[in-house]
Amino acid sequence: MEIFLKSHENDLDFEVLARSYDLYGKILHLMNDYSGAMESHQQAIRIRAEKNSRDHVDTASSLTSIGCAYFKLNNEIEAVKSFQSALELRNQLGIYDHVDTANIYYTLGENHFSLDNCEEAIEAHMKALKLRKKHLGEHPRTAESLHDIAVVYCRMSEKGNPRRQKLPHYSPRLKRLLKFTFCEEALAMRTGVIR
Question: Which end of the chain is more exposed for a tag (fewer CB within 10 A), N or C?
Fold first, then answer.
């Protein structure tokens, strides 16, 4: 596929070519070739930049996909940068109130959680939750956000967590209440109890 794309770079419309590289990157990601996926998405961004079309929603999508590849390669720092770049571009384009933006915030929250940046994880997950509630309502992805917020609060309240002492504004009782509330709401949403 890559050979075909390179041999037809001058024959295809630049946006068709960029989207083809993005699609190829998604295929490589599914095949667990994260480095190849990253290269393909970066090529899509380069093609758009050459045609002065870097500020495009598809570029934000490419940046998100690059962040996911970095995350799979255990390079969480670069993943955070990529997700934040995608969010900045979506904001510049006025696409901040959208379910895809929620998905980027969710993935950013997961990334912060893996880095044990609990406060940043909560902030990102809460933004994802707000957008998911607005656009999806009672939906498995909304429940997923609720559950992951509870998981972060659970980590924050664990004894022996070095970050626990750095969060004095959350009392242990409040942390238990918060994690229970988010878990309870997630479970209710997943089982269809909330109407």
Answer: C
Separation of alpha carbons 102 and 180, rounded Å: 23
Q: What three-state secondary structure class fits 154?
A: helix
173-182 long-range contacts, CB within 8 A, separation 24+: 178/149, 178/150, 178/153, 179/150, 179/151, 179/153, 179/154, 180/150, 181/150, 182/146, 182/147, 182/149, 182/150, 182/153
C-beta neighbour count of 7 within 10 angstroms? 9
Listed in sequence order, the residues at least 6 apart from 39 whose beta carbon sits closer than 8 Å to its beta carbon are: 25
Q: Helix (H) and strand (E) counts for the chain?
A: 9, 0
pLDDT digits 0-9 by tens, 147-157: 898 888 888 87
How far is 130 from 29, CA to CA, in rounded Å?
28
Nearest to 98 by CA among 109, 110, 86: 86
Residue type, 131: L
For 102-135, the pLDDT digits (tens) are 999 999 999 999 999 999 999 999 999 999 999 9
User: What is the model's pLDDT at position 174?
Assistant: 46
As given in the structure block, the two tokens for residue 22 are 């993005």
Q: Identify the band that residue 44 occupies on the pLDDT scale cut at 50, 70 and 90.
A: very high
Alpha helices for 1-98 (secondary structure H): 2-7, 14-30, 34-50, 57-72, 76-92
